[in-house]
Amino acid sequence: MFLTTAMALGATMIAGDYGQESSGVRLTGINGSPVSSVGNWHTGWYNTYGSSADAGKNAYVINGDDSNGQFVNSGNGAPTMIDVDLQMGSNKFLVFFDGNEIYQGRDYWSVNLFFEGQNTNPEVSAFSRPTSTDSANPEFFANTGAQKSLNGAQTVNGSGTLETTINGLTVRLTEFRTCRTDIYGLDRVNNFSLGTSGRNDHVTELNVEVVPEPASFAALAVGVAALRRRKRS
Description:
By secondary structure, the chain is an alpha+beta fold. It is about 15% helix and about 35% strand. The protein has helices at about 1-15, 180-185, 215-230; strands spanning about 20-30, 35, 45, 55-60, 60-65, 85, 90-100, 110-115, 125-130, 140, 145-150, 155, 165, 170-180, 200-210. Residues about 1-15 and about 215-225 have low confidence and may be disordered.
C-alpha cells in the first residue's frame, strides 16, 4: 500500500498534474508601473496595498482567467490587500486597475510579486512592452530597475529574477503582459474602489507556476524509480 501510494504521488509530481493541491506559498502583494526601457520606475503605480496615504491606484485581482470573475479584494485600505494560497502547478491571475488613454511615456510596464507578507522587496520582478493587440504576447524580462515597495513609500531594486524559492518550492512567473485599455474593453474598477469609472481598465495577465525545486524533483524521480524496482523484485 505504501509503495503504491508513494509511486502514485511521485508520478503525479513528475507529470506536473497537481489538481487543486495547495502549495502553502502565499502571494501577498502585486504592484507595477510604467517604466523606462531599462525597467526603472518613472511615473505612477498600481498596487494591492490600498492605504489612503498611498498615492498609487488600487489593483483588484481575479484568481483565474475569467475577466468577469469575482475579485479577491475590494474597496480601499485593508480589504485591498491580498493573501492568496497558491496551488501547485499553474496559477492564473487578472489584475485590473483604472485606465487612462495616455500611452505616451508608457512604453514599458513592470510587475512585482511579493510573498509571505514580505512586502518591501519584491521576490519576482519583470517588465515588458504593453500589449496593443489581443493576440500579441510581448517578450518579458527580469527587472533589476528601480521599483516601488508594495506601499509605494520606498524605492527598491527589482529582484532581477523571474523565479524564487519559497518553502523548498520554485515559484516562477511564466506569463506576463499588461494590456492597453482597448484590449478587454471593460470598466470594472475605479482608482480606489470597485465599480465603473467611465474609463476602461488596464488588465495585467499573470501566470505563476509553483513546482518542486529541481533537486527535490530529481531526488523524487530516483526514489520512485527505486520503489518500482523494489516492487518488481
